[in-house]
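[agent] plan:
  1. take the single chain provided in the ticket
  2. run structure prediction with default settings
  3. attach structure tokens to the ticket
  4. add a short note for the reviewer (M.T.)
[agent] executing step 1
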Amino acid sequence: MSTRADIGLVVALAIGLVALGCTDDVTVEPPADTETGDGDGDGDGDGDGDPGDGDGDCPEGTLGCPCGPNDVCDASLACVEGTCDLASDPVCGDGVVEGDEQCDDGPTNSNTGACKLDCTAQTCGDGFVGPGEACDDGNEINDDACTNACGQPGCGDGILQDGEVCDDGNADNGDACLSSCLAASCGDLFVQVGVEDCDDGNEIETDACLPGCVAASCGDGVIWADVEACDDANPVDLDGCNANCQPTGSLIWEHSYDAGPSSCDYFYGVDVSAAGKIAAVGVLGKAPDPLSDCQIIVQVLEADGTVDWTSIPQTTGPNCDEGWAVDFDEQGNVWVAGHVYEPGREREQWIRKYDPVGNALWSRRFGSPASDYAYGLAVDSLGRGILVGAINSNETGYDISVQAISGNGAAVWSKLIHSGNADFALDVITEGQNIWVAGFLDVEGQNQNAWAARLDLAGNVEWSHAHNGVFSGMDRAGGIARAADGSLALAGFETGATNHDIWVRRLDAGGQELWTQTFDDEFLLWADRGQEVAIDGQGNIVAVGQHWTPGDQLNSFDAWMRKYDADGNIVWSESASGGADGEDVWFAVDMAANNEIIVAGAMTTQIGECTNAVLRRYNP
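[agent] step 2 finished; step 3 output follows
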């Protein structure tokens, strides 16, 4: 386009020519458009300063026009030696990617390499086995000898091949397809999640995995070897095979303490805590002579029978001290009681409190100037120890003693119950606002009567119950227990036709007799004694003691235990021996929360040796 400056230039040129004498027959052309120039002097108008033809009339990129390294020639042209010229055909293998070549590695082009001989890139499906390919059959058939991913077919590639039942593309043996590409099934040794409980690869019915890949369990009707002793396929206790698949009344474990072959050792008392721990108390080195040396032993065990701690307190020595009763309080402290030798008056009531790990917190003694005994102990709802036994006086002989002792060992109150010359309390339990005591009273003309009473928390008697056997002989209640419904059980012995018979009685909450059972062993030769009693959560009663059985040395006492239902029917009985003629006895019994039975006493295990203190845990 012309500008005003251009017009002015034309006018000036015309005037000049007139001045020079030019005529009108001379044609003057306006200057040509110089847009093809770019002012860099190379004449190509690209402004890059590369050499041009200098005439400024050769369109950039066209055939024959100059070009530089940064110039682009028109389609089908190439910059050849500085001029846009017709491009020559690309040469595959010259190492230069030209034209429609995808690649060119020069002389290293290969049909098995990254760039093939036709300068195309190696790809799966081109029929050539290139880098990273295991095969290449040039087809899109996935289940033949070469997969569409150019891999050899195999289990785990996610492609179902001939000979494979399944292929889920993983190596997880817990799903429906195993890593071997076989379908999961019971017996393949792999547990199929959500389908099988177990898989041990066999059809054995007595191991942990039953046929059908179901885990063995109590109640499946099959006895699991080394785990279950029985399995009657029901959750019923006391039918021979209990709900825990152990025989009714069978032994779970035994713990014994032996202070030496000549030491007569006994556990006299036992208690089970709310946490399941077991405390036992007794005596080591017991001898008929009260002046002989014997010591109290206290042990606390875990539920499985392993010993937690042991204490053998040094009291007065060297004479005989005995521990008879033990009870846990709500804090897990252990209270123990018995009687210890006191020079000048033989025995004195003794009580001690331990913390849960066996540290003695305090010890106290109580009694009269004469010889006194403590046989029972229970912690009441106020956290006080209720200690029972007998206090001796010159005026009345032995009277039943019941006293409350505070948590720090101070005497709170003391009560005496008198009937005759020999009145003893042998056991005590507490619950809520009441205390129940059992023992015997000396009644004129009736010898000893078994006795029980309920007291309030101040020690006042609310009712009492007495039993005089048919022969008016030695009749005693050695233990008392309370059921959840408020009824009570007593166990002891009475004088029978030949000697003592075991005696078990159930009372209602008001102290009235509901039923009575006695046991007289078949040999009718010697004393049978009931010592203690406990009631489980179903109201069943377990009584323990000893009975006489004939032996090589004619002095064989065996430990006796019998379970009754709430109506007094016998559920099962056991007579236990330590393995040698001698004394075997259960002095105490308590129930664990699962109704398993803990008994305490002694067993003779070697002929000519004295007893070992023994604890046992039994199935219900």
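[agent] step 4 note for reviewer: Residues 251-618 form a domain with the Neuraminidase fold (CATH 2.120.10.30).
[agent] ticket updated
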